[in-house]
Every structure is written in C-alpha cells, then in structure tokens.
C-alpha cells in the first residue's frame, strides 16, 4: 500500500516529467518551424 505522502510525491514526479516532456516537444516544434522558414 502506498501512503498519501508517497502518492503526493509520485504525482509531483509525474508532473515534473510530463512538463519536461512538453518543453522538449514545444522546443522541437519551434525548431522545425524555425528551420523550415529559412
């Protein structure tokens, strides 16, 4: 069984990893748009 504290930490870790993935994805799209415009 997971304690509420572990669950909170897991959710924070998941949100951190998800935000990092979103930042990389946005950076990739911006780079594709930037280099396709040249």
Automatic annotation (TrEMBL):
<keyword id="KW-1133">Transmembrane helix</keyword>
<dbReference type="InterPro" id="IPR047811">
    <property type="entry name" value="CytC_ox_assmbl_put"/>
</dbReference>
<protein>
    <recommendedName>
        <fullName>Cytochrome C oxidase assembly protein</fullName>
    </recommendedName>
</protein>
<keyword id="KW-0472">Membrane</keyword>
<keyword id="KW-0812">Transmembrane</keyword>
<feature type="transmembrane region" description="Helical">
    <location>
        <begin position="12"/>
        <end position="34"/>
    </location>
</feature>
């Amino acid at each position: 069984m997971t304690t509420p504290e572990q669950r909170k930490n897991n959710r924070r870790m998941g949100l951190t990893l998800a935000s990092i993935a979103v930042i990389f994805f946005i950076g990739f799209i911006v780079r594709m748009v930037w280099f396709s415009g040249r």
